[in-house]
Amino acid sequence: MTDPIKLYPAKPEKVYFFATCLVDLFYPDAGMAGIQLLEREGIEVLFPQGQTCCGQPAFSSGFNDQARDVVIPQLELFPGDYPIVVPAGSCGGMMRKHYPELFAGTPWQDKAENLAARTWELTDFLLNVCHIRLEDQGEPVKVAMHTSCSARREMGVAEVGPRLLGQLGQVELVEQARPAECCGFGGTFAVRHPEISEAMVADKTEALVAAGAETVVATDCGCMMNIAGYAEKNRRPLKGQHIVSFLWERTCGHGGEGKA
Amino acid sequence: MTAARTAILQRLRAGRGNQPLSPPASDFSVVRDRDWTTAEKLERFETMITSVNGEVHRVAEDRWVDHLWALMAAKGLTNLLASPETSVGREAWTRQRESGPRLRAYDSPIDDWKPELFNNVDAALTGCRGAIAETGSLILWPTVQEPRLMSLVPPVHFVVLGADQIYATFYQALAEQGWADLGMPANALLISGPSKTADIEQTLAYGVHGPRELVVLILE
Amino acid sequence: MSLAPHSQEVRHFHPRVRSALDNPQIRSNFRNAMDGLMSKRQNAFNGWDLESLRDLGAAVRLRALSRLPELLEQLEDNCSRQGIRVHWAETGEQACEIIRDICKARDARTVIKGKSMVSEEMELNHFLEAEGIEALESDLGEYIVQLAKETPSHIIMPAIHKNTAEISELMHDRTGTERSHDVAYLTAAARQQLREKFMKADVGISGVNFAVAQTGTLCLVENEGNGRLTTTVPPCHIAVTGIEKVVEHLEDVTPLLALLTRSATGQHVTTYVNMISGPRKADEFDGPEEVHLVLVDSGRSSIYQDQELMDTLRCIRCGACMNHCPVYTRVGGHAYGTTYPGPIGKILMPHLMGLENTQDLPSASTLCGACGEVCPVRIPIPKLLQRLRKESVDGDSLRPSVVRGHGVKRNWKERLAWNGFRWLFRNPRRYRLFGSLLTRFRWFTPSQVGPWTRYRTSPKPAAKTLHQMMNERTRGGAR
């Protein structure tokens, strides 16, 4: 019953990139940074233009029919036997963990399981499949890390972000209180239960500020949008950035991309 | 209420339907296998029970009664509930001193002397069926000679334990003493320290309903 | 099943949440308590192969559930043979009536109670009091909650929502205890008040942590000794338990015990593990003359009808899920309005009370998974929350809903919204068109978007979508 141990594939020639709708529409620079990091590792990145959304918003609201209908056409987008890399624990978790549930006993079950088994969270893939080595070229900076709950618990990558940041010589990763606690985003939760969500994001933001971080580096744009949006509205001194944008910026000298 | 019984069982059986449920195998090694020596078990028991405010004294087998009298005097306890018929109790009875605590036996039903037991007994002495190193627990099976309330109502409970009576785990104790085959007594207990509570703001307080002190005399 | 009286209020979840969030005392009491409990739990499992232990805990509970009807019969046989009288109740109300009848047959006027969440669930105290029988809680936390005329806010630490000052004031008002912030003093005062009651009580009522079918043994786990007094001093003991608490063998108790106390309060073991297999024997001097076991269904057998939902019944009531829940930590136990609060409450109460009465609970979670991660018997709580969300909206035509009150949250607005979502995202061309319109008119997107922007700024769409960027870059993309 324990989660099966992850078996990382050998570094492939090609990967599929599933951007997620949030990255596509709001944070494309984070997606581009991820693609460029992969390419720098010598991997050809395939970006299927037919991709839209992983279906999670509908699924987690209980609308499985709608979720399935959104996913079904996309099950055909990844025909080659290459890994599918996702710059979000949340959407990655949806694909890896929940597609097999959602399609169990349906004609799409095999396809869904095949896709699920090939799905990887991007930072996990960079560290544990590409064995990426990062050369820091930026100025000294203090950052905190927020690993999303799904990246942490569904994708099992809690250690990955800190290890990647640890490769950057000029980056000080500060320790926050209760790092594993949820930021309060939870997709539609933030809208259905806004007061509880606010209490959670307020605590998270204050913990990050108290830790002395200038920027919170996040695995997921959802959490980043939540935390940075709260900080901005409440004039707290904290910026948010997707971790792959941050890694790309630090190792290439390109500034400011993918910030929230 | 046999109607309720029938209805509940029927619903359960219907629910399971024709699909037999196949649970995974139970691998008990994680709660069973400990390769501790007798000395390690003793040490572990002592550490664990002390960590929950139990008091432990290692004493020579022929000296424990003297030690008990000294402890009682130091704690200002003037009387002791002890069985004249168990091996542990009998020793206390035969070696009681004129100037020492007054002994009394639990020799009539509780209903006859409830206020006396609740209000006037300072301490009780019992044996035990062994102990568990892993959790620092004493195993008691109350008997006719040493009834259940002896280990519960008096403010101080003294327990005599042989150093060689310590099992590594609860699992081992159950298995080696053959509890399931013996048939369970009306009441069996694991006791790990004095009574306590943390119900007020998670602050520990001892002796809330049961004994405020648990003293273990380990005979070596 | 009739609704328990307090369930009338369950529906009003949001106002209670609001008032809990606005109460700094509640916020800090729970935050401090949950922080403490989380770190104690972590320390308690140091040196353990926790994942194997959780596997074993889950396996033992699954085995018990797989043979539930047979084990209940075996338990009944063995208990009866040993002199414990077994009663069955389909509803909480029936269980209350059984207990009342036992009390009346003995002319009982006063009942002393050990901690029992099932008795809270069936509101036994109110029932008995209406019948002229005094029911007094003896667990210190439950005693405090009863003095305050409240319900427990946590299943293991019932008075966790109060601090020492509040408890001191309460005990002063209700019992005349001197005001004091000395916890030892307050505890000693309660001991004295309750000892009198123990001596006089006609009946003791307790819960059960594990009921062992093989030996007919009721296991009770506690620290204070009130549970032992309750089950030993009065001449009659009534144990009341949900039907799911049965386990097969005595050895099955060992992993569950190891998991329960460490998960709940970070203790290696509780002070007392009390195993009862019969009433006082003829030659014994203490123990109750009569022991009764009341097996309560109250919705559990309907949970048993569904293999996925059945996992709910594995629960051993340790409370670790609430201790680790970021929502529970913020709002506290009373905001839920249900007997069992927190994650386990969210997946259990809809079955006991119907989704129509608990409709806000399944959605009140970020699905962060902290509960599932610590559950000692590996109940997939987030998955069950998701299932109940689906049941609430009847959201899956392939697998129709079965839970009581299913479809209660169906409404045209939300359905329309998700149909719109489907319309947009199932068609890549439509989605890409939407993306390009969104980026083109990015400065016209609203800065106020409902509850989201009450507390946050709204992100602006990007100047170009990644689709567009990749399309330009690769002149047609990978496909």
From TrEMBL, chain A:
One of its GO terms (cellular component) is cytosol. One of its GO terms (molecular function) is oxidoreductase activity. Pfam families: CCG. Residues 15-96, 143-227 form the Cysteine-rich domain. InterPro entries: Cys_rich_dom. PANTHER family: LACTATE UTILIZATION PROTEIN A (PTHR30296:SF0), UNCHARACTERIZED PROTEIN YKGE (PTHR30296). This is L-lactate dehydrogenase complex protein LldE. It comes from Marinobacter zhejiangensis.
TrEMBL record, chain B:
It comes from the Bacteria. Residues 42-219 form the LUD domain. Transmembrane segments: none annotated. Coiled coil: none annotated. Pfam families: LUD_dom. PANTHER family: LACTATE UTILIZATION PROTEIN C (PTHR43682:SF1). This is L-lactate dehydrogenase complex protein LldG. It comes from Marinobacter zhejiangensis.
Automatic annotation (TrEMBL), chain C:
GO terms for molecular function: 4 iron, 4 sulfur cluster binding; metal ion binding. One of its GO terms (biological process) is lactate metabolic process. Residues 306-335 form the 4Fe-4S ferredoxin-type domain. The keyword ATP-binding does not apply. Keywords: 4Fe-4S, Electron transport, Iron, Iron-sulfur, Metal-binding, Repeat, Transport. The keyword Cell division does not apply. Pfam families: Fer4_8 (PF13183), LUD_dom (PF02589), LutB_C (PF11870). PROSITE patterns: 4FE4S_FER_1, 4FE4S_FER_2. This is L-lactate dehydrogenase complex protein LldF. It comes from Marinobacter zhejiangensis.
